[in-house]
Amino acid sequence: MIELSEYMLPPARSTLAGETDALFHFINVTSFILLIGITIAIVYFSWKYRRRSDDDVTPVITHNSTLEITWSVIPLILVMIVFGWGFTGYMNLTTPPDNAYEVRVVGKSWLWEFHYNNGKVSVNELNVPVDRPVKLVMSSDDVIHSFFVPDFRVKRDVLPNRYSSLWFEATETGESIIFCTEYCGTNHSQMDAVVNVMTQDDFETWVESGDSVDESVPPAERGEALVSRNGCNACHSADGSSGVGPSYLGLWESERPLANGETVTADANYIRESILQSDAKIVEGYDNVMPSYQGVINDREIDDIIEYIKTLE
Ligand SMILES: [Cu+2]
User: What is the pLDDT of residues 148-162, one digit of tens each?
Assistant: First the structure.
């Protein structure tokens, strides 16, 4: 079975992945055996009972109880096995252990926010401890998204106005990919993130660390890193090309035409407002799709982002 998994599936990196894979292989292998058996029977019987002469007459057969019971009971048993196995697997996947570490997940078009229990927030990077159950409590700020980690074999829809949850326990450290698997608009295909599984100690250190600023790095460079870490680049470019959102190139202190006909100067306050209350002023020609970063990006970080935008003239 392990060989089969390696051939057909991504690596299994959670405690329940093995069970899910085993059921998947059971269904595949039994279907394959039945396919071969039935095909051989069809070919053999067509040959054995072929018409040999013109006065070959098919005998009248009303029924054959043994045969009928056999072909009803065998599939019934198979279906019951698959049902029982699938149901216990489903229950295990939907019932997180009591000691699970909880992380709040917010899906937004088109990024993932992760809120930890001490107020720490990360964007598009979920950090979790290895060998410890983690429960995700998820909701969406806009449309339906879906949270999928192939390596963990977990997937669940993320809905607006309602919580959904899933849990997993990672079995090895390293990175795995998170996909959004519910088509959610223009940049859906870029709505991916990573789960970074760390040792318990590394995780404690990371989650306890304040958002300390590395003073040795110039502010504009920190800003550039922030813009990439917070998923801004999915919609904004630094080279003048416009994507879902306008480019940062030449933005600083330029006159911005707004959708309501007014014009504003792109100063520090305007950029700050654009990040925290993205729907306050909409740039003409663009849709109001930028998520709000209120509670995700703090003032120090906004300063750094502004310094970065200033360099793009
Ligand atoms: Cu999505």
Answer: 999 999 999 999 999
What is this structure's pTM? 0.78
Query: d(Cα 187, Cα 168) in Å, to the nearest integer?
Result: 27
Q: Residue 289 Cα, ligand 1 centroid: separation in angstroms?
A: 13
Q: How far is the CA of 226 from the centre of ligand 1 (A)?
A: 21
CATH number of the domain within which 15 lies: 1.10.287.90
Rounded to the nearest angstrom, the distance between the alpha carbon of 140 and the centre of ligand 1 is 9
The answer to whether residues 151 and 106 belong to one domain is yes
Domain limit, last residue, from 153, 186, 208: 208
What is the chain's length? 313
Which residues are placed with Cβ below 5 angstroms of ligand 1, an ion? Answer: 145, 180, 184, 191
Asked whether the beta carbons of 86 and 268 are under 8 A apart, the reply is no
Cis preceding-peptide flag for 110 (omega within 30 of 0): yes
Looking at the predicted structure, is the pLDDT value of residue 27 above 90? Answer: yes
In a domain, 280, yes or no: yes
Same domain, 81 and 106: no
